[in-house]
């Protein structure tokens, strides 16, 4: 380390943001808040109640819920409390629920149906689209053992995605179950943890590598385009064929997929039990009116199967977007969930059935922003301040507009009219109000509709013509100002 590197930072060098903690401007903040409102409205309609837990939990309470079994206390931001106990920022919204249910004990009626929305923090390496702080919106049912509860989560998740503007063909919820896959793994003799993990990892790449690439990973291994070789699961050709037949059993309808799976899962007890789970879920999905295009049974879904104890589901955006490099790509996963009956057992030793669904609000908001669907967020009406010595008129007009329910501000500064107009444009103001000496004398105000003015200005060819036409500009009596502004704002909404 050089002397320069060891010196404390000062001045401008201090203005640096920690990696993985995004700064959000108004547009994204409002888009995120709107998503939370729409999603939680669906959760409430389905009978779930709100629960808000603190940002911190005791670190030893989180270990069970961290996805990395090799690092049970890693992946979180921790500090010591004043009693020297380690507390951590919540990794997700599930661990706080588990603690809450365990503390409440028998006083909490079951099933307990809760939803929660808020930020979570993960001490992981950040990257493109991967943050250390982000928002989630969860719903969980604790104390319901039947698979109809899982089906409800899935159908409700699909309805929530529709509520935020997704249509059939633009998203899908994929459903699988751990027991079904366990049956297949048992059927091909995958007894070691290493082999089972290699098979899971291979299946997880089906959408990216296709059948041939996955077949290589199930067998001896695969060399990618860069020349790197990935060791395979070591299955022989017949067993590779068996696993692929299972993974590719998906069909146009849930019933057809189940029929294919009944042939591909073999005769193991785990396979039969897993198939029965999916059949029960499919029956309940039909009763709940979940469209076939929104919810599919997909045996290739393997993410989280080591975490969940039963059915697992993943929500994915299918719509393609064009990046800055001109290439098209999919946003991918924006939510998921499953059954985790070990939810409370860590604290009480008692197995309590539970199932849940989570939407990644931050990821979804970013995706909608990329797709240009977060909507235009209008700024305030800006009242220009042309009297630097006495801004009371501008302040009074802005007050009148706010009292009428119109978002407005008086310009705070000493700039001339042109910089003030540029400021209004930058603030995305729908209109500006101008009160100069002439308007004061006549008891009027000049209102400039910035959107209409911009449209009309396109047809004007000279500055002289522009000054004469004053596009989008009207003069009205002060008493009529509020209604004139209201018409402009409503027309632009």
Q: How confident overall, as mean pLDDT?
A: 85
The dominant shape is elongated
For the largest beta-sheet, the strand count, sense and barrel status come to: 8 strands, mixed
Query: Class of the largest domain in CATH?
Result: Alpha Beta
Which percent band covers the strand fraction?
A: 15-25%
Question: How does CATH name the architecture of the largest domain?
Answer: 2-Layer Sandwich
**Helix- and strand-based class?**
alpha+beta
**Residue runs with pLDDT of under 50 for 5 or more positions:** 465-469
CATH superfamily of the largest domain: Bira Bifunctional Protein, Domain 2
Secondary-structure map:
Elements: H1 3-6, H2 26-45, E1 49-50, E2 56-58, H3 59-62, E3 78-80, E4 86-89, H4 94-104, E5 112-121, E6 133-142, H5 147-163, E7 171-177, H6 178-187, H7 193-203, H8 206-218, E8 221-223, E9 229-231, H9 237-247, H10 254-264, H11 269-287, E10 295-297, E11 311-322, E12 328-339, H12 345-348, E13 354-360, H13 361-370, E14 381-383, H14 392-403, E15 408-410, H15 417-426, E16 431-434, H16 437-442, E17 444-449, H17 450-457, H18 463-469, E18 473-477, H19 481-492
Helix pairs in contact: 2-5, 2-13, 5-11, 6-11, 7-8, 8-9, 10-11
Detailed description of the structure:
The protein has 493 residues and is of the alpha+beta class. The chain has 2 domains: 268 residues, Bira Bifunctional Protein, Domain 2 (BirA Bifunctional Protein, domain 2, 2-Layer Sandwich), CATH 3.30.930; 112 residues, Rossmann fold (3-Layer(aba) Sandwich). It is 41% helix and 20% strand. The protein is built from 19 helices and 18 strands. The strands form 4 sheets. Strands 1-5-6-13-12-11-7-10 form an 8-stranded mixed sheet. Strands 15-14-16-17-18 form a 5-stranded mixed sheet. It has a 3-stranded antiparallel sheet with strand order 2-4-3. A hairpin with a 5-residue loop joins β3 and β4. α6 runs antiparallel to α11 and α10 packs antiparallel against α11. It is elongated and about 95 Å long. The two termini are 57 Å apart. About 1% of the residues have low confidence.
